[in-house]
């Protein structure tokens, strides 16, 4: 049975259109491969689907650039000239922008001022004054933050010191304050939290004088306190 003639027009159904594109693309690439093998031809095919997806075929032992260069030589058409001119124009603009930026930096350092007229010098002066103002404001704000942080740290240290002095005063008034019957060489332990570590104040046990008969008993004092800092 003979195949019906297919009408050549755009396929409206997107799925069918994609399937047809894939099949015919593969058939075209197969024919290009056959031409390369049978006829020793150099073939280059570049295709873009409706979604701008690139598909290409190039004969073995050659490149797309070599094919385009050969085309330019044979047809006497310069494919790259327009693109090269655009690249050169972009390069010139970038170099000019870079030159202006370098000049502006030098002028803000007090260099290259001779080429400026009085109006340009005034504009530069205003810009520099505004910049200095912003820098000073930022500096004062940073200093203020550091001062507040230091004040808070000092206040915390003062509170800790007051608490320690208060505990020592209580211990001086009551010799039995905070005693711990642990049978060791220390009769009391005080603990304080100091910025990430704990400080422990230990007092020597006063009943160890049986080792030293001639040692006189005395009331606890600040000199009997040993403080250890334990890192956590």
Description:
Among the domains are: 64 residues, 3-Layer(aba) Sandwich (SRF-like), CATH 3.40.1810; 38 residues. The N and C termini lie far apart (91 Å). Helices cover 53% and strands 15% of the residues. β3 and β4 form a beta hairpin. The C terminus is likely disordered. It has four helices and five strands; from the N terminus they run αββαααβββ. The protein has a three-stranded antiparallel β-sheet, with helices on one face. 2% of the residues are buried. It has 232 residues and is of the alpha+beta class.
| Spatial gap, N to C terminus | 91 Å
Structural class designation: alpha+beta
The CATH superfamily of the domain at 14-77 is known as: Transcription factor, MADS-box
Share in β-strands: 5-15%
Residue-averaged pLDDT: 78
CATH architecture of the domain at 14-77: 3-Layer(aba) Sandwich
Strands, count: 5
Major sheet: arrangement of strands = 3-4-5
Largest sheet: 3 strands, antiparallel
Query: Would you give the CATH topology of the domain at 14-77?
Result: SRF-like
- SSE run: HEEHHHEEE
> Helix proportion of residues, in percent?
40-55%
How many helices? The count is: 4
Question: What is the CATH class name of the domain at 14-77?
Answer: Alpha Beta
Sequence stretches where pLDDT stays below 50 over 5 or more residues: 182-232
Rg result: 45 Å
What's the overall geometry?
Answer: elongated
């Amino acid at each position: 049975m003979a195949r019906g003639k297919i009408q050549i027009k755009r396929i409206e159904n997107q799925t069918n259109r994609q399937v047809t594109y894939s099949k015919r693309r593969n058939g075209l690439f197969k024919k290009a491969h056959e031409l390369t093998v049978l006829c020793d031809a150099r073939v280059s095919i570049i295709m873009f689907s409706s979604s701008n997806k690139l598909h290409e075929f190039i004969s073995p032992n050659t490149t797309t650039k070599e094919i385009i260069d050969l085309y330019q030589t044979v047809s006497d058409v310069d494919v790259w000239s327009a693109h090269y001119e655009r690249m050169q124009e972009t390069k010139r603009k970038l170099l000019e922008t870079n030159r202006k930026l370098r000049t502006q930096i030098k002028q803000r350092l007090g260099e290259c001022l001779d080429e400026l007229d009085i109006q340009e010098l005034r504009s530069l002066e205003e810009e520099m004054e505004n910049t200095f103002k912003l820098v000073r404001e930022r500096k004062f704000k940073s200093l203020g933050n550091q001062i507040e942080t230091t004040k808070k740290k000092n206040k915390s240290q003062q509170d800790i010191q007051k608490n320690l002095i208060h505990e020592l005063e209580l211990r001086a008034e009551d010799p039995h304050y905070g005693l711990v019957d642990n049978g060791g060489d220390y009769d009391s332990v005080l603990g304080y939290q100091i910025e990430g570590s704990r400080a422990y104040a230990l007092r020597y046990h006063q009943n160890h004088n049986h080792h030293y008969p001639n040692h006189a008993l005395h009331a606890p004092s600040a000199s009997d306190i040993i403080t250890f800092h334990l890192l956590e």
